[in-house]
Design goal:
Layout lengths: L2 H22 L8 H10 L14 H26 L9 H27 L11 H13 L3 H4 L6 H18 L3 H21 L1
Helix pairs in contact: 1-2, 1-4, 3-7, 3-8, 4-5, 4-7, 4-8, 5-7, 7-8
């Protein structure tokens, strides 16, 4: 295998396999190490490449706050429209998974890792990575298929918007922390609604 083929595999094929692995199951907690280990050991980059850095933090958090507000404003009427049920109220496991684990896991997978590898080449163009951002938002949407099974398909609208807008935040700031913040804030607000509805 020549150097050019090896570079192409490391640059595109291997990251696609990492994304696919992460897409398969977000409930297997150790799998979150995969993108970090890949970037650190295979690509020999620091975690700033994935947007875990101080630069751009303030603008990322500010934009993340706006995204969370927009997404929650769309979710709120759907909550009342569907009268989204709560089985046994909100417990600590729900708080951990919805407000901590999934925001970190999904933002690392879809915004940080995917866009760092597939959105970076077009960042300098006028399109600002729209196609890679759309693809990652659709991948993010696909793991939320439970809303179809629950008979709440309109909830997929704010889910898609969260993925797409957080992608724009990442592309603009190169910082994923605001994306994690907005995702956690939106999920936390939805949990609060569920807790108050009991």
């Amino acid at each position: 295998m020549n150097v050019e083929h090896r570079e192409m595999i490391v640059a595109k094929v291997m990251p696609a396999l990492v994304v696919f692995s992460l897409w398969l199951d977000g409930s297997f907690y150790p799998i979150l190490l995969l993108p970090f280990l890949y970037v650190l050991t295979v690509e020999k980059r620091d975690l700033g490449f994935l947007g875990f850095k101080v630069r751009g933090f303030n603008s990322s958090i500010g934009l993340g706050f706006v995204v969370a507000g927009v997404v929650f404003a769309l979710y709120l009427p759907l909550f009342f429209f569907y009268r989204i049920p709560t089985q046994d109220g909100v417990n600590l496991y729900d708080i951990f998974t919805d407000a901590i684990w999934y925001p970190i896991y999904e933002e690392t997978t879809y915004r940080a890792f995917f866009l760092a590898h597939f959105g970076a080449p077009v960042l300098s163009s006028s399109h600002r990575g729209v196609l890679p951002n759309l693809i990652q938002a659709l991948l993010f949407l696909s793991v939320h298929h439970k809303y179809l099974a629950m008979g709440e398909p309109l909830v997929l609208i704010p889910v898609f918007l969260l993925g797409f807008l957080n992608g724009l935040v990442f592309l603009k700031t190169s910082n994923v922390l605001g994306c994690v913040f907005s995702h956690s804030l939106a999920n936390g607000a939805a949990l609060l609604l569920r807790a108050l509805a009991v």
